[in-house]
């Protein structure tokens, strides 16, 4: 009886040890079109390239919505998307800098600290609609410019990558 019990305990314990970390590390596989690839220093990979995301995966993360003035319009714009820090956490990214690239080949570096300090989002909806590539989509890195004076500067406007396609974590 004692042996059966300890064997069961051992089996349960090893199942826990094996399954918990694996579930925590694994990133679900992509079923739709890949719109964001995070490579470099990421631990949760779902492809050779790194951590790939389709729209549904980004929409399953907690969503933030804010309305802010921007350099792109005279009217305030409502943006919705997951927090950059939550997307990075999903990819288990650790590093100091993000090298962001856009569909139009624009590139810029974003300090990782921005994701912690500010509620930066990777927006996939603008004024309640999917963002078309023509209108700076499908993904747009947006800072809550109206929430802090310091964010209304060219430093952060330049880091506001529209048509975002990839992030390399350095
Ligand atoms: N994809 C993409 N994102 C970009 C840029 C760009 O050329 N392509 N320009 C950056 C710069 S330098 C600024 S100041 C802001 C505003 O650029 P815009 O007025 O040309 O849209 O977007 C940033 N994001
Ligand atoms: Mo700029």
TrEMBL record:
Oxidoreductase molybdopterin-binding domain: from which residue to which, for each copy? 67-144
Keyword Signal among record annotations: yes
Cite the entry's keywords alphabetically.
Answer: Signal
Task: Tell me where the signal peptide lies.
Answer: 1-26
- Pfam short name (any one): Oxidored_molyb
Q: Write the protein's name.
A: Molybdopterin-dependent oxidoreductase
Q: Record the organism.
A: Rhodoferax mekongensis
């Amino acid at each position: 009886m004692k042996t059966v019990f300890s064997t069961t305990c051992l089996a349960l314990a090893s199942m826990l040890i094996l399954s918990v970390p694996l579930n925590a590390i694994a990133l679900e596989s992509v079923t739709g079109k890949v719109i964001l690839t995070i490579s470099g220093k990421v631990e949760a990979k779902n492809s050779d390239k790194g951590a790939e995301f389709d729209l549904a995966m980004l929409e399953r993360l907690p969503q933030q919505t804010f309305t802010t003035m921007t350099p792109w319009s005279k009217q305030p714009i409502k943006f919705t998307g997951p927090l950059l820090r939550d997307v990075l956490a999903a990819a288990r990214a650790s590093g100091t800098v993000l090298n962001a690239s856009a569909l139009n080949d624009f590139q810029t570096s974003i300090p990782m600290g921005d994701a912690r300090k500010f509620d930066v989002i990777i927006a996939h909806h603008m004024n309640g609609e999917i963002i078309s590539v023509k209108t700076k989509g499908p993904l747009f890195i947006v800072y809550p410019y109206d929430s802090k004076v310091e964010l209304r500067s060219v430093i952060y406007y330049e880091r506001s990558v529209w048509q975002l396609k990839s992030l390399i974590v350095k």
